[in-house]
Amino acid sequence: MSTNNGMNPFWQVARIALSARQSFRLRLALLQVETKERGGHAGKGLALVLVGALFALAALVLGIVAMVATLVAYHWSLHAALGLTAGGALLLALGFILWGKQALGRAFSSRR
Hints:
- This protein has two helices and no strands.
- By secondary structure, it is mostly helical.
- It has one domain (9-107).
- It holds the Pfam family Phage_holin_3_6.
- This is Phage holin family protein.
- Keywords: Membrane, Transmembrane, Transmembrane helix.
């Protein structure tokens, strides 16, 4: 007595292989759709971050200009006010660069 309902085992294996192939194709198509959707979101997010960074840069420049204007209003010469704000901005930039370098050093360090 046969337990495979009269089907040849070869055809059962062939049907399983065909189903597995179809499942793989469907999963691949789903992965492609998800990747395309995520890529679109990533592109929009990157563009928004770039716009935000431009606004932040404009705000920093306006802040520096405001500091110069304030110093000039307190009877500093324009050259002295520009030199002081440029020096302060340089020190702040160097501090951020060193802080970033230290963080990158920890991130890529071989010891944990």
